[in-house]
Automatic annotation (TrEMBL):
UniProt entry tagged with the keyword NAD: yes
Keyword NAD recorded: yes
PANTHER family with a match to the protein in the record: POTASSIUM CHANNEL PROTEIN 2-RELATED-RELATED (PTHR43833), TRK SYSTEM POTASSIUM UPTAKE PROTEIN TRKA (PTHR43833:SF5)
Protein name: Trk system potassium uptake protein TrkA
GO terms for cellular component: plasma membrane
SUPFAM superfamilies (alphabetical): NAD(P)-binding Rossmann-fold domains, TrkA C-terminal domain-like
Domain RCK N-terminal: 1-117
All residue ranges annotated as the RCK C-terminal domain in the record: 137-218
Sorted UniProt keywords: Ion transport, NAD, Potassium, Potassium transport, Transport
Molecular function in Gene Ontology: potassium ion transmembrane transporter activity
Domain of life per record: Bacteria
One Pfam family named in its UniProt record: TrkA_C
Amino acid sequence: MRIAIAGAGAVGRSIAQELVSDGHQVMLIERDRKHFDPNSVEQAEWVQADACELSSLEDAGMHLCDVVIAATGDDKVNLVVSLLAKTEFAVRRVIARVNDPTNEWLFTESWGVDVAVSTPRLLAAMVEESVTIGDVVRLMTLRQGQANLVEITLDESTPFAGRAVSELTLPRDAALVTILRGGRVIVPQPDDTLEGGDELLFVTTAAVEQDIKTALGY
């Protein structure tokens, strides 16, 4: 894919390096000369421009991008970049970084955002996920809140140990997508069995999150 990243600070450069390593074409757009360092991600295309300026985005070829990532440290800039990418250039997928959690409510489809990534929220979720047994931990919100990625860890004494995935009676709007077991990532098949300590990842609607917990005996 061709991916544009607005903001070449530490976050933007790290994202770019990962995407380049995965074989994607990456364009970094940075206004501040202090952060404009093509040598830091040599495989990426670098553009020194203001990502909030329509003409700059036109010159950079934003219309050719499959994905735009607004990764600056300024939420106002990220919102403007998202809106321009979606409304002016019809970019299929727009991902925006949320720096201040109190601004998260703004990062919606109305501003052109398909996926909002709040670092503070993700860190809090990771902490909860690492210490919580039997509770539903929301890791990420998808499609403007229409679905969530949630995690629940089975305790060692779970009555579901040794039972097949097919025996789980999950609510209609929930799907078990991954089982994390030690260093393994398991794509669950109906005959796969559960074990105590398994971390189960579900894609679900908010309305049935607690129903998942009930289905697992918590």
